[in-house]
């Protein structure tokens, strides 16, 4: 996999200064900083990335890496160069590159970017997660008896039997 980045123009370590960081630098290294990014993630509204070296949370789109016939690394480099010229002191590209090289990548320079140490180094990650909100349209826990924390093995067994018999009976897996 080819990557393109401006080593001299943006920080290479999570603790390095960046205009895209939010909050004071000591907040990035505080206990719970990585967990706070995970808690702040909103599917469809943000991009979250966790690696063995850092945790990132990006919001908004400042610029998109264009699709085209040029190699991806070249298009990323042009996007980062344009961002530097536009006054972004530390542009970063985030997004996804599909395994299918014929499918388009979804890459962008975010409006805001927060980073923290790796989740694995955050002691708060070991705490139990908050209970999920009740299903839409209800005011409490799931009202249906089918919603249980531990499903009965009978529906699973019926589904497995139907599958092994190559049955297409929807009632067996419903």
Automatic annotation (TrEMBL):
Q: Where is this region: Disordered?
A: 1-27, 130-154
- Bias (Basic and acidic residues): 1-12
For bias type Low complexity, the affected ranges are 137-154
The superkingdom listed in its UniProt entry is: Bacteria
**What is the name of the protein in this document?**
Isochorismate synthase
Q: Which organism is it from?
A: Streptomyces triculaminicus
């Amino acid at each position: 996999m080819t990557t393109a980045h401006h080593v001299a123009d943006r920080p290479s370590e999570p603790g390095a200064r960046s205009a895209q960081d939010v909050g004071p630098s000591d907040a990035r290294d505080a206990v719970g900083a990585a967990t706070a990014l995970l808690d702040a993630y909103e599917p469809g509204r943000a991009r979250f990335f966790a690696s063995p070296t850092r945790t990132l949370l990006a919001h908004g789109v400042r610029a998109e890496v264009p699709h085209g016939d040029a190699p991806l690394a070249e298009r990323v480099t042009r996007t980062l160069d344009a961002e530097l010229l536009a006054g972004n002191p530390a542009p970063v590209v985030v997004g996804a590159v599909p395994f299918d090289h014929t499918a388009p990548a979804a890459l962008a320079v975010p409006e805001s970017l927060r980073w923290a140490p790796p989740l694995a180094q955050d002691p708060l990650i070991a705490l139990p997660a908050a209970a999920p909100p009740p299903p839409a349209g209800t005011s409490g826990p799931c009202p249906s008896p089918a919603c249980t924390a531990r499903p009965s093995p009978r529906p699973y067994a019926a589904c497995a039997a139907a599958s092994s018999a190559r049955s297409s009976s929807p009632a067996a897996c419903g």
